[in-house]
């Protein structure tokens, strides 16, 4: 049986994945991309509500315990992951062809949509994913009482399993594995979930800026 602490870290992630499934079903039912433009905002909003409901369960987020040097390291790692992310896109490094998200209407960018997309990716997704992948799953593989497992003491098995799963959660599976390993390294090194959250936020936020600047909507 999973504890309340476990469910607190699982349910925000499941909520996010549920909306991905909903979008797919609605698309198959004939809803156009234009009609589903704001579904991402609803998805992010739902995740925020679940996170807020369980907020007191996240003891690892209770205080900011990231010294300036560690924060700078996390930022640098986030930038490096971004550079790798947009360069690890060869055919054998990807799964399928993502539809992406095009926020333009008649050739003009819908800036409110862009703002919501970048804010969700940089502020909400990193918290939700790091709580699930690194704080919960990586440690739970080693012990059902995952909160008792020190980040620096996780096994090689849990590192490999969660990195591979995190990678194949994304269309760019190899980039995803590399990102997962980088975020794990930060968690193990700094022993606080705020480090991979910060790196993840930098990666996602700058990726959003790059996508808008280059028009590479498939990366969304």
How would you concisely characterize the structure shown here?
With 220 residues, the protein is mainly alpha-helical. Helix content is 64%, strand content 2%. InterPro entries: Prenyl_protease-related, Rce1/LyrA-like_dom.
- Strand fraction: under 5%
DSSP helical segment count: 7
Largest sheet: 2 strands, antiparallel
Distance between the termini: 36 Å
The poorly predicted ranges are none
Mean pLDDT across the residues is: 95
Helix content: 55-70%
Helices and strands, in order, run as HHHEEHHHH
List keywords for this structure.
220 residues
In words, what does this structure look like?
With 220 residues, this protein is mostly helical. The chain has one domain (66-219). 64% of the residues lie in helices and 2% in strands. It is built from 7 helices and 2 strands. The chain has helices at residues 4-28, 39-53, 68-85, 111-140, 156-168, 173-190, 194-214, and strands spanning 104-105, 108-109. A two-stranded antiparallel sheet has the order 1-2. α2 (39-53) packs across α4 (111-140), α4 (111-140) packs antiparallel against α7 (194-214) and α6 runs antiparallel to α7. It is globular, with a radius of gyration of 17 Å.
